[in-house]
Structures are given as structure tokens and as C-alpha cells.
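Subject: two folds for Thursday's group meeting

Dear M.,

Sorry for the delay on this. The cluster queue was jammed most of the week, so I only got both jobs back this morning. I'm pasting them in the order they finished. Each block is the input sequence followed by the predicted C-alpha cells. Could you check whether the formatting survives your parser before we put anything on slides? The first protein is the one we discussed after the seminar.
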Amino acid sequence: MHNPEPMTASNRRSPLAENVQLREVWAWSMYDFANSGYTTVVITAVFSAYFVGGVAGGAPWATFAWTAALSLSYLAVVLTAPLIGAWADAHAAKKRLLLIATAGCVLFTALLWFAAPGSVLTALVLVALSNYFFGVGENLIAAFLPELADSGAMGRVSGWGWSFGYVGGLVSLGICLAYINAMQHAGVGAGQFVPVTMLITAGLYALAATPTFLFLRERAQPQAGSARLSDAWSRVLVTLRQSGHFSDLRNFLLCTVFYQAGIAAVIALAAIYAQEAMRFTTQQTIMLILVVNLTAAAGAFSFGYVQDRIGHLRAVALTLVGWIAMVLIAGTAESSGAFWIAANLAGLCMGSSQAAGRAIVGYLAPRDRLAEFFGLWGLAVKTAFMLGPLTYGTVTLVFEGNHRLAIFAVGSYFLVGLALLARVDMARGRRAALTSGAPESGAGSGNL
């Protein structure tokens, strides 16, 4: 097994692309800082468990309802992300559309203030809408990566963003935890303090994202002959028809669907698993997520450098082995100590695997269609985020709340992802991205 991505002079000198200043990369990373508060507080640590135990009153169908709402929002992203990406490329509008997506997520997160106990439909609709806009924004901000990073340093620059993101999640969750502890000591119930944490999260999202819109440049130029919305659909169809030319990127996106499905289940259901299977209290669960965010930040930052040195595919393969080990430990854990080990292993792998995946797409995508191809990446990721949590929720519904069986079920996705990764050849895929011509022959596949 050889490394098809050798170190180059460019990635030894500077990780940034030509005419890119560090301040602009910081502004780009601040968006990861901003939106991670949403996933950490709303999807992972606070609102998910509150919905199951508070809004839905611990009903047997509550976990399934939560995963179904998330899956519907991810389906909406799947159906619209390639179109949005193609339109953004044609009109050089990544930044404008990112602003709209950010405003939508902030607004609907703030409106979760109205998700009181018993208001199940309101909570599910607002979560689905906020999560949709989050997903659109995540795709658009990722499309800036190849414009900012040298081709030999996308792993570490992507890792900077992801690590900054986990720090952002840590800050948001820490502020919310301080507020929750104060309210609990005052005798206030979750039905009153959890809605306030939604306002805190929305406000921090808007504030932290501000540098992105002040300093991040839109380098793309509008493309002639693409003035109508139907043209964006045409570009998407052309991309799909030409996917044979970008076969390695296509294979990696298929791999992404599977391994991200497992990650999605962990993100969406970590707090629920901790409370339902491990009997953690709310305070214990939030402390666990806080520590895991630190671990994830360290993993994303440090592993980006490892990825650029050992090769993108080897890096992803290493993280998938770690995910499989995590599932085995968490699924069999009887003590809180064992579960803490599994959770922190998940944190290390989470930051690493997500940063690595984004860098691979940036490495294999043609530069004149970045938003479009990151829209396809978003399609793969959001298909996974629809599939993973729904699998988990379905298992708990069919097998009467068996959360341990559910985590083993979603763990199988990591095994499939590892097998599919062997079909990707980075050297061949990079040549296809640079030439955008006829597929080249003679390059073997399966090099990790």
C-alpha cells in the first residue's frame, strides 16, 4: 500500500493558496465555530434529550419521531443541495446564499423558544427547518475550502476549520450549561430553561458568523449563459452524466454515505443513548459532550497534519477503524468509565474523519464547479444523516427501546464504508479534476 499523495514543496512552504491571507482563513473557520453551536446544543446535547423526555413526555415513539424529523430535513437538503450549488457556481453567489442559509438557521433555532412540553408538532417542524438551513450553509461554506488552501494542504486547513468548530460547540454548550445549572439551583424546570438555551444558541451563531461575511471573499466569477434556475438543473444533470469521468470522486461520495451514516447517528443520538442506555443525568450528559468536543477539536486539528503526510485515504481508513472500535466499546459498556472511553474515542474520530472527508472532496473536485460538487458532497452527507439516525430510531421502535442493538446496527455502516474506500484512487481522481477531459487509463484503483 503506497501513498499516492506525496509531500510537495508547496505544502511544506505555506498551506494557503496564492493571494489568501490568514485572516480570511480565520474568517472561514469562524463559520465552523458559529454553526457547531447549533449541532452541539440543539441536535446532540440539550434539545434532543429534552424533546424525548420533556416535549414528548418519554413516549415510546419519541426517539423515532426525532430521527424522522431530522431525516426529512436531510432529505430536503439532498433534493436541493446540488441545485443550490450549481446556481451558486453559475452566479458566483456562494456567499450570498450562505447569508440566507445562516439567517434561516438562526431564525428557526430562536423560534424553538416555543417548543414547550406537549408541543410535539411545533418542535419537530422547527427542528426540521433549522436543520435544513444548517445543512445548506454547511455545504456552501465547505465550497470555499479549495479556494483558500493549497492542494497539498487541504487536510490541515480543513482540520483548522473543524477544530475551530468544536471549540465553538464547546463555548455554546458551556454557556448553556452555566445557565442551566443556575436555573436548576433556582428550582426552575427544563420546560422553562431549555427554550432560553435556544435563544442563546441562535444569538451566538449570528454573532460568531459575522467575521465570515465581513472578511471572506467570493473569488468565483459569474458564468455566462446561466441566468435561469433551469440552467442549474441542467448543470446538475450534466454532472451526473459525467460522473464516470470523476469515478473516484463518485466512489468516495458513495463511501461517504455509509460512514457518515454512522457518524450522523452518534451526533443526533449521543445524549439520548447516554440517558436511556447508560442512565446518565442531564448534567453528566452535558459534561460528557463538553469533554468530547475538546477531544474532537484536538483530533480535527492534529489529524489534518497527519492526513497531509500519510495520505487522505489512509487517514480516513484509520478513523473508520477507530469508529468500529468505539461502537464495540459503547455497545458493550456497563460502567460509566467504559462509556467515557468510547465517547472520547468517538470525539477523536469525529473531528478527524469529517475534516478528512471535506478535504478529499476539495482535492478531487474541478475548480470551476466547486459549489456544485460540494453540493453533491452535501447530497451524500445528508443522505447519510437521513439514513443513520432513522436506522437507529427504527431499531429502538421495533425492538422496544433497545439502544444497544441500535448502536450496533448503525456501527455496520462503518464496516461498509471501510470496504468502499478501497475503490478510490486519489492520484487518478486528482488528474480527472485537473483536466476535466476524458478519463485516463492505466491508473490502478484501491490505493490507500
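Second protein, same layout:
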Amino acid sequence: MPKKTEKPKFRENERIVENKDLTIGEALIPVFALVAMLAYNVYVFGDDALSGSNQFILLMGGAVAAIVGIFNKVSYKQMIAEVAENVRSTTGALLILLMVGALSGTWLVSGIIPAMIYYGLQILNPTIFLAASVIICAIISIATGSSWTTAATVGIALIGIGDALGISLGMTAGAVLSGAYFGDKMSPLSDTTNLAPAMAGGDLFSHIRYMTYTTVPTIVVTLIVFIILGFTIDTSGVADTSSLLENIGATFNINGWLFLVPLVVILLIVKKAPPLMALLIGTLLGGVFALIFQPDIVANIGGGGTLNFETGYKGILNAITVDTNIATDDPALNDLFSSGGMSGMLGTIWLIVCAMVFGGIMDGIGALERITESLLKLAKTTFGLFASTVGSCLALNVTASDQYLAIVVPGKMFAKAYKERGLAPENLSRSLEDSGTVTSVLVPWNTCGAYHSGVLGVGVGEYAMYAVFNWLSPFMTLLFAAFRIKIKQLATSNSPSS
């Protein structure tokens, strides 16, 4: 099967640790402890909780899980082995985060992001901006099979345009992620779209066709919501557009040639080039274009008045690795034209590693298997089976902090139950995607939530309610299950009672 995305490679053969001695009450102790500690920590630190304290709380949650494991005679070696496997599986994501930071730095100093904002301010009317953002991100994500690359490229530019127009960052991020995850779900190049039918025992393209029944209505509702928002929001930035354009033009050399770089990156991804290679090439091309089109800016960042080999080298390397700020005559643009480079991604990387420690220990002591097993026992009807699947995926996104485990674990646990009920595997694979893939971005300590929050520079709490597609998808699946709409039966089985 074709697979292309910058997200970490999924673990189709992931081993689910079983511990028959562990009770459901014991399995839930670390979950309740983590939720309580995180809630209090966010109450105390507010928006600064992700600066480090939440990361430590995740480690404390892992410690609670380890204590439960020790009382159930789970060896320290086994727990550490599962942690190591979890962290190892995120290696690709961590490297991509670093490269995204590097790319954003060179795309800023080269004028690529400012050019996107400059032309976007002239093309995207504030009234249709949010709906247009959904459509743009959906198209790119379908073509690339990657919500992560979509957010890291066009998503960053749309955030800048929305900010300049005076539109809430949360709204813009919600529109970006709604479109990006719609495309990710429907693309045969997406790893999660390949993983879900593999876990359920179905076929890729049958899975995609079956997903359209719930996914198309969800994206339609999402677009309607953003169209309504576009007509109701106060876009105070509209009156300042001329001033913003003048300041951008005075600071950067804006021209159409700058768009060659993002076009090359998108082409590489579509042509199935490795994501890290595509981002690296985008970073290097950004640096070359910076030297050609923005020599004064590069020299200034490099600590000199004129561009030479030393100031050029230092300027590009600084843009790639550390904080970069480009001053303009507009304070709003000063905040907009800043990048943390690779160092700006370290907080997100720290969060992901700590989340993987918690998820690894939870898996190592058998808690993830026990929680999913208990949910399965509640499934007495067809609707109950769907609801248990959705609940399991949501719980694993919160506890395991990994969307792949949120597909693999329920997929393995529920496949037999769906077959025994005479339900085709497309029912399970669709439910896994509708609840496991898309909701991962709504959990701050999940790899997806941490990634998108770090890349877009918008907290999960700010965009969650506006990520309409993401939180509406599981409800749509449950609605279809409740009214038995498009519930496909196995060809050789009688229809089960609901």
C-alpha cells in the first residue's frame, strides 16, 4: 500500500501487554491521578503549564503507573522496555519537529512566509477566510496524505494572514486543522488511513469509500460553521491592511519567485520523497533564497552591516537554530515576523518524550489492555459496540498520548467482536479513524496536540472548540450507529440485532 506522511511510522505489529492480575480499578488509578494533577497544574500555571510543569506531571503520572505495576509484580525491566519502544517510535516525529523549526526560520528570513501573508491579505477576504482555509488545507492534505506537513507549511502562513486580519488565532488554527485532518483521513497516502483497515482486517479503498458517509457530512457542517463565523466576527485588521502591506513591502523584497520553494516542497511530498528530505531541501532552498532576495536581513541577523560569507553563514545558521526576530515599523508585524528555529521546538519535543514515558509504562503494566477490555464488556448492542470503540480510542488518546496506539489497541481488541456481530471490518476501521485519528489533536499532551500547538504557535485550549471537524467526527459516527445508517454487514452473516 502507498504510504506517505511525515508523521512517525505506525506500529502495525505493536504488542499489547496483557496482565490478568491487574484490575480495572488499578488500571484507572494512574489515569485519575494524571488528570487530577494536570488539572491542578493548569489551574496554577495557566498558559505557562506547557513550559515545563505539565511535562513533569506526565512523568509523575508514569511514576504512579509504575507503583501500580510494582504492586502487581511487573518488572522494572518490562516497564522500561515499553517506554523505550514508545520513545523510539516517536524518533521520526522528533526529527521532523526540529526540521520544521529550521524550515520556519529560513522561510521567514527569505521572505516566503511574509510573501504568503502579503498576497494573502490581498486575495483572502476576511469574510471567507476561515472557510477558504479549511478548503485549502483539505486539498493539500489529500495530496500529501499529511496533516503535519499541511500545518507546518500552508498552516503557518494562514495563521499569519489571519493574525494580520485581526481574526482569532484559535479560529484560524481550528480551520487549518479541520481541513488538514479531513484530507489526512481521506488520502490513501496517509499512514493512519492505511493502518485502520489493516487493524480491522479490511481493504484500504473500501475503507476510504466507507468513510465518506460520515466524513463528508462532517466537513460540510464544518464549512457551514466557518462561513457563519466569517459573517459574524469583527475583523478589525481590515482597516489596517494597507499599512500592513506597506510595512511588509518596505521590510522584505516580495516577489513571486519566493513561491518556488514551497512549490518544490509540496512537489517532493506528492512524489513520495521522504518527509525529512523534503523539509531539509525546503530549509536549504529557503536559506539560498534568503541570501538572494533578503541580503540585508541575513547580514543583520548574522551580526554585520553588509552581507559577506561570515555574516551570511551566521545569519542562515541563526535563522535555522535559534530565535529570530525581524523588526518592522508595525508592532503587530514584529510579533508576527519571529521564529524560534530548531530551539523553539524543544519544548514540544520535551512534552512528547514525557508523554511517551507515561504511555509506555501504562502499556507495560497492562493497564491499556485492561481499560480497553472493560470497555468491550459494555458493548451489549451494535450501538454499544460502536460507542465502546469510540470511547476506547478517546481514552487511549488521553492516556497513551499516541494516535497510533489509539488505532492499534482498539483495532486489535475489537476486530473479533465486530466479526462475531456479523459486521464488516469497514465499520471498525471507520470508527477508529473518526475517533482515534482526528481527536488526537485535541489532547495537549498527545503527540499530535503537542506538535500542532508547537508548529502553529496556538495552544490546544485556544483552538479546540474551533477544530469543528475534529470533535464532531466521533459524534457523527455515533449518530450513524444509533440510527443504523450505512452499517455494513458481512456478506456471509445474518444481520445482528441492535
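Two things I noticed about the second structure. The first strand starts at residue 324 and ends at 325. The radius of gyration is 23 Å.

Cheers,
T.
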